[in-house]
Design brief:
Pfam families: VWA_3 (PF13768)
Shape: globular
CATH architecture of the largest domain: Sandwich
Structural class: alpha+beta
Number of domains: 5
Protein name: VWA domain-containing protein
Number of strands: 37
Oligomer: single chain
Length: 690
């Protein structure tokens, strides 16, 4: 304890702040506190919680300006002293930095990776905690010691700017969120906003870590934001933007580790300035699920969704409303012309529908498709319900095949999934078979926001009949296949693998129709033998692959090749899978639908990560029953080098290879596979066997 006090004293005298940003990367300061002592014994302390984390990044052609605000809370029965660390990456330094605590300016010292490493060693050794080792190799800023009272709060605001480097029309923005992850407790409110103010058009905006909401002001300006309340933060924030390019725009990102298959992601963005053609007149059939399985609250939302769709119809449109029941029925025997009176009548009809009965999904869909009579109008079906057929023909494959066969006028079917017993696999397959779209309400998003998002896609596609041709490599297991039409304003994301063992120049040809006119765009891309960037790609590809296999298994029943492939992927990437047998209507069924939707749509692998697994910098670590984190690339036959936790050798190897610090931070006992050997880090209390 005397040693801890000596370290604390030296830190209080010499530290100011740790701050650094790589290119365009910073955010998430750490409030590191020291335990007080009582009669030469240290007292266990809870790390300060983060009540608020707000980051605003404004990006221009030359600079990225950061405004970071955090509020920390001391949930201990005694005051604490510590230091505030604002980590950055590599050797980039802000031109100026302003740090204020509770509105008072604090002096700060920017420390290079070499200067900061001895400090990192002292902090880690004094606390016998490796959590900060991920800061190795990074520039950090030290603000002098911070005091925080009993049950007290500290507000920290940081403002600085960094130069921007846009390479090959791509910009990669990182907010490591070190402090938010370090706190361990859920973050009260996390708010991240990235505003683009560019001289060139902003094409695609994509995050592999968080679900984004994107607002476009002009072709050169947009706002992307992510927000959460009361959730733990396990990953930093990353945003990738592309600029200028062709129409439609094609960007390809790659990742490949030695001895493994490579992964690529293609981003297809719609043209910037499409000719504003007159909106085609639509024939829209709304299909409302009124079956008993919906549940009262979900049924009320379904009615609300149908009425919202009616109110969005335009001049010249026609419509009808079908009700799914034991015997499907409709508001009218034919399509009705739009008018204030007809919409009001339809709203009254929807309001009068009572919940109950079975679900003849098959006949409701087939009958709705028989409403269409003209190829000169845009046919659309909007299905709102849980997708669970219980009456008549219920086999999923038969429903999909017969709906396709009955769809003579090529109507696009859009599905909005609601209810506890939602069959996401069937709803998505029905939509995909008609090149429509699907969305599902899982209770995690404001319903009105979800409706706006859903109906914004119920429009003619800007880019259709999309295909990619790789002339010099053989892509494998491409998802999605076939590539869907581009609906709304977002980009189409295509993922796949490749097995080439050398750098391979390749011409990638994008073929599509833009407002019905054929267009071809060709890009020259090198698929590298080794590419350590974009380490999120293998996990993201695997998520989409698992979703595809789960859908096939749920629609067609367990198939031998899928039964083996799913557990293999789950083991390789540390994913959780739904139980093989799911009881209809039981609690597992809803969990399984939620999990499938996350595999299909989420970009954050932590949403599908199994307990006891962690993805770190392209590797997957598994926690053994003995409490040892083990690299999934490790094999018992590997030559293993044992290193004592906190030893000179432990710090020496991290100083020489700073990237290892990320893995060391996971725990005091671990096994890490490297190219020529395995490292076994062992604490004095660690198990003899992993």
């Amino acid at each position: 304890m005397i040693y801890i006090q000596r370290v604390l004293t030296s830190l209080l005298l010499t530290f100011t702040v740790l701050s650094y940003v790589p290119g365009v990367s910073s955010g998430g300061g750490i409030l590191h506190v020291f335990p007080p002592s009582l009669q030469d014994e240290s007292i266990a302390v809870a790390r300060p919680a983060v009540l608020l984390s707000r980051s605003v990044v404004t990006v221009s052609e030359s600079y990225a300006e950061y405004r970071i605000e955090q509020t920390f809370f001391n949930d201990n029965d005694f005051p604490l002293s510590g230091v505030f660390l604002l980590p950055m990456n590599d050797y980039e330094r802000p031109e100026t930095i302003d740090i204020r605590m509770d509105g008072v300016p604090y002096p700060s010292e920017i420390m290079s990776p070499e200067t900061f490493f001895p400090v990192l060693r002292e902090l880690t050794t004094s606390m016998k905690d490796p959590s900060l080792m991920g800061l190795a190799g990074r520039t950090v800023v030290v603000v002098r010691p911070v005091q925080i009272g009993v049950r007290g709060q500290r507000s920290v605001k940081c403002q600085f700017r960094l130069p921007v480097a846009i390479e090959k029309d791509l910009l990669d923005i990182h907010l490591p969120l070190d402090g938010e992850r370090y706190s361990l407790a859920p973050v009260g409110e996390l708010d991240i906003r990235v505003r683009m103010k560019m001289d060139r058009p902003v094409r695609s905006v994509f995050s592999p870590t968080h679900n984004l909401t994107i607002t476009r002001e002009t072709s050169h300006r947009c706002l992307a934001f992510a927000k959460s309340v009361g959730k733990k933060v396990r990953d930093g924030f990353q945003l990738i933007s592309s600029f200028s390019g062709q129409d439609p725009d094609l960007q390809i990102l790659t990742h490949k580790m030695p001895g493994k298959k490579g992964t690529f992601m293609a981003l297809v963005s719609p043209p910037l300035d499409l000719t504003k053609n007159k909106e085609p007149e639509k024939d829209v059939v709304f299909v409302l699920d009124s079956s008993k399985s919906m549940g009262p609250s979900e049924f009320a939302l379904a009615k609300r969704a149908i009425v919202s769709g009616l109110q969005r119809l335009g001049p010249g449109d026609r419509f009808n409303v079908f009700v799914i029941d034991t015997r499907p029925r409709s508001m009218s025997d034919r399509l009705v012309a739009i008018s204030d009176e007809s919409v009001a009548q339809a709203a009254r009809f929807v309001d009068s529908v009572q919940e109950g009965g079975g679900t003849d999904l098959y006949n409701a869909l087939v009958n709705s498709l028989e409403q269409f009579t003209s190829r000169k109008r845009l046919p659309v079906v909007v299905l709102v319900g849980n997708g669970r057929g219980t009456v008549g023909i219920t086999n999923p494959e038969t429903i999909i095949e017969d709906v396709q066969r009955s769809n003579r006028f090529r109507a696009r079917i859009f599905t909005l999934g609601l209810g506890r017993h939602m069959d996401i696999a069937l709803l998505d397959s029905i939509a995909a078979s008609s090149k429509g779209g699907s969305l599902h309400h899982l209770g995690k998003e404001d319903f009105e926001t979800l409706l706006n998002r859903f109906y914004s896609g119920v429009t003619p596609p800007q880019v259709s009949e999309i295909s990619l041709e790789f002339q010099d490599i053989s892509p494998e297991e491409v998802e999605p296949d076939p590539i869907p039409d581009q609906l709304g304003t977002g980009s189409v994301v295509v993922l796949g693998r490749y097995g080439e063992i050398r750098d391979t120049p390749c011409r990638v040809r994008l073929k599509a129709r833009i407002q019905g006119r054929p267009r071809t765009v060709t890009s020259a891309v090198t698929f590298p033998e080794v590419d350590r960037s974009n380490s999120f790609l293998p996990g993201l590809w695997a998520m989409r692959r698992v979703a595809k296999l789960l859908e096939k298994e749920w629609l067609k029943g367990p198939e031998s090749e899928h039964r083996g492939r799913l557990p293999m992927l789950a083991k390789e990437f540390g994913f959780k899978l739904p139980p093989q047998t799911v009881q209809f209507g039981g609690p597992q069924q809803r969990h399984s639908s939620d999990l499938l939707w996350r595999f299909k749509t989420s970009f954050s692998r932590s949403d599908v990560e199994a307990d006891g697994f962690r993805a770190l910098d392209g590797k997957v670590m598994r926690l053994s029953p003995n409490g040892v984190w083990i690299d999934l690339d490790y094999h018992a036959s590997m030559e293993t080098r044992v290193i004592e936790f906190l030893s000179n050798e432990y710090f020496s190897i991290v100083r020489n290879s700073p990237r290892l610090g990320v893995f060391m931070s996971i725990g005091t006992d671990l096994i890490l596979a490297r190219e020529k050997e395995a490292l076994r880090v062992k604490s004095d209390r660690g198990p003899a066997t992993p």
